[in-house]
C-alpha cells in the first residue's frame, strides 16, 4: 500500500502546483486511492488518502488543496464499491453526492469568509447580472444559479472519475518486478523547523486562523499582523512555499476586493475583508515555512499516533511511516512526464498512460528509512510563541 500512497502524493503535488487542469493532474492519485480501497477496504483507502494529503501539506503547505482533496474524499468509496460489484450508476451517484457536499462547503466558506456574507454575495451577483433584465434576482436566485453551475461541473468530473476508475480497476496492469532500491539513510537532508518546535508552530497557526475567522475588526487584524511579522522574522523560515502562497493570497484578495465593491459593502469593510484573506494565507504559509517539511511530517506523525483510535487514522499513521520525500518524489514525477510525453492528446490514451504509470510506480516503490527524524522538545520559546498568538484575542474581549 505504501506504493499507492506514494503515487497519490506525487499526483496530488503535481495537481496543486499546476496552474490549470488540476483535476486531471490529481486523477492519477485518485486511481491509486481507489486501488488501495479495493485491495484493503475502506479504512485502508481513507487512511492512504489521509497520509498522502498530509504528505503534500508537509511538502507544500496547505495552499490550493481543494483539487486533490475531492479525489481523496471520493476515490476510496468508489474503489470499495467496485470491489463489491456495484453498478456504475451507483458509483456515479455516490461520487456526485460527495462532490456536491464538498462544493457546498467551499461555497459557504467563500461566501462567509472571503465575501463577508450572503448579502455581499447577492449584491455581487445582482451587479453582474441585473443589467441583463432577464436573469432572476435576489439571494435565492444567486444561490440557485451558482449551485446549478456547480452541479453541472460535478456531473462532468464525476463521470470522468467513474470511467477512469472502472477502467483501471477492471484490468489492473501487471507491473514488472521492482528495480528501484530505496535511498540509503542519510543520503539527503530534509529541512526541519528552524527555531521553534513544529508542534508549537502548528498550534500557533491554528490559533491565529481561528482568530481571523472570528472577526474582521481592525484591532484583531492588526494584532495578528503584529504577531506574524516578528514570528516570521525569527523562525528561520524555508521560503520554498512562499511563491505559491503569494499567488493564492493575490487570488483571494482580488476576490474579496471585487466582491465587496460590487456588492456595495463599502471601502472600509471591504479592505478589512481583503486583509483577512491575505492574513489567512500568510499564516498558513508561515506554518509551512517555519516548520519545514521535515518538521511538519514529524508533527503529523505524532498527531496520528495519538489519534490512532479514530477510524482510518491508524492506517494513515502506518502509511506515513513508509513515505519518503525528496528525490523519490522528483524521480516519480519525471517518470510520469516521460510516460506521457508521446501519448496522443485523446481521453482514452491519456487515461491508459496514467493507469500504467500508477501501476508501475506503485509496484516499484519500496519504503525507505528516509532522512533522520528531527528530535522534538518543547521549550520556553515555543510556549511564548503560542502565548503571543493569543494576544490578538484581547481585541475580541473589547468588542
Estimated helix fraction = over 70%
User: Average pLDDT value?
Assistant: 86
Order of helices and strands: HHHHHHHHHHHHHHHH
The outline comes out as globular
* Structure classification: mainly alpha
Q: What's the end-to-end separation, in Å?
A: 51 Å
Q: What is the total domain count? A: 1
Q: Give the helix tally.
A: 16
**β-strand number:** 0
Q: What characterizes the major β-sheet?
A: none
Q: Which residues form runs of ≥5 with pLDDT under 50?
A: none
Rg value: 22 Å
Strand content: under 5%
Write the topology of this structure.
Elements: H1 2-17, H2 22-40, H3 42-60, H4 66-83, H5 88-115, H6 118-129, H7 139-170, H8 198-214, H9 218-234, H10 242-263, H11 267-306, H12 313-321, H13 327-340, H14 347-364, H15 380-389, H16 394-397
Q: Can you characterise this structure?
A:
With 399 residues, the protein is mainly alpha-helical. It is built from 16 helices and no strands. The protein is globular, with a radius of gyration of 22 Å.
In short:
The chain has 399 residues and is mostly helical.
Give me some keywords for this one.
single chain; 399 residues; mainly alpha; 16 helices; globular
Amino acid at each position: 500500500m505504501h506504493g499507492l500512497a506514494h503515487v497519490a502524493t506525487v499526483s496530488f503535488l503535481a495537481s496543486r502546483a499546476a496552474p490549470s487542469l488540476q483535476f486531471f493532474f490529481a486523477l492519477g492519485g485518485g486511481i491509486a486511492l481507489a486501488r488501495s480501497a479495493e485491495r484493503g477496504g475502506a479504512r485502508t483507502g481513507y487512511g492512504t488518502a489521509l497520509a498522502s494529503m498530509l504528505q503534500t501539506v508537509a511538502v507544500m503547505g496547505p495552499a490550493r488543496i481543494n483539487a486533490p482533496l475531492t479525489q481523496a474524499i471520493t476515490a476510496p468509496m468508489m474503489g470499495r464499491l467496485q470491489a463489491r460489484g456495484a453498478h456504475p450508476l451507483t458509483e456515479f451517484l455516490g461520487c456526485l453526492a460527495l462532490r456536491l457536499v464538498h462544493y457546498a462547503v467551499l461555497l459557504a466558506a467563500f461566501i462567509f469568509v472571503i465575501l463577508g456574507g450572503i448579502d455581499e454575495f447577492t449584491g455581487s451577483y445582482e451587479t453582474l447580472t441585473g443589467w441583463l433584465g432577464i436573469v432572476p434576482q435576489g439571494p435565492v436566485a444567486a444561490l440557485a444559479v451558482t449551485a446549478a453551475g456547480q452541479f453541472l461541473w460535478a456531473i462532468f468530473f464525476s463521470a470522468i472519475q467513474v470511467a477512469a476508475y472502472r477502467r483501471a480497476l477492471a484490468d489492473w496492469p501487471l507491473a514488472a518486478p521492482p528495480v528501484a532500491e530505496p535511498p540509503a539513510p542519510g543520503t539527503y537532508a530534509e529541512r526541519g523547523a528552524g527555531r521553534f518546535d513544529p508542534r508549537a508552530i502548528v498550534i500557533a497557526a491554528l490559533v491565529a486562523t481561528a482568530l481571523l475567522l472570528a472577526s474582521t475588526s481592525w484591532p484583531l487584524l492588526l494584532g495578528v499582523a503584529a504577531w506574524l511579522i516578528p514570528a516570521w522574522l525569527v523562525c528561520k523560515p524555508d521560503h520554498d512555499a512562499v511563491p505559491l502562497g503569494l499567488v493564492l493570497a493575490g487570488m483571494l484578495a482580488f476576490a474579496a476586493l471585487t466582491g465587496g465593491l460590487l456588492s456595495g459593502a463599502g471601502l472600509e469593510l471591504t479592505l478589512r475583508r481583503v486583509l483577512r484573506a491575505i492574513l489567512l494565507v500568510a499564516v498558513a504559509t508561515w506554518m509551512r515555512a517555519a516548520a519545514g517539511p521535515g518538521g511538519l511530517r514529524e508533527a503529523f506523525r505524532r498527531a496520528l499516533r495519538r489519534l490512532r483510535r479514530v477510524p482510518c487514522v491508524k492506517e494513515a499513521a502506518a502509511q506515513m511511516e513508509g513515505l519518503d520525500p525528496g528525490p523519490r518524489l522528483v524521480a516519480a514525477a519525471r517518470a510520469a512526464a516521460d510516460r506521457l510525453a508521446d501519448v496522443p492528446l485523446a481521453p482514452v490514451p491519456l487515461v491508459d498512460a496514467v493507469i500504467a504509470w500508477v501501476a508501475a510506480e506503485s509496484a516499484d516503490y519500496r519504503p525507505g528509512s528516509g532522512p533522520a527524524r528531527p528530535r522534538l522538545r518543547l521549550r520556553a520559546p515555543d510556549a511564548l510563541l503560542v502565548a503571543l498568538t493569543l494576544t490578538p484575542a484581547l481585541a475580541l474581549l473589547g468588542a
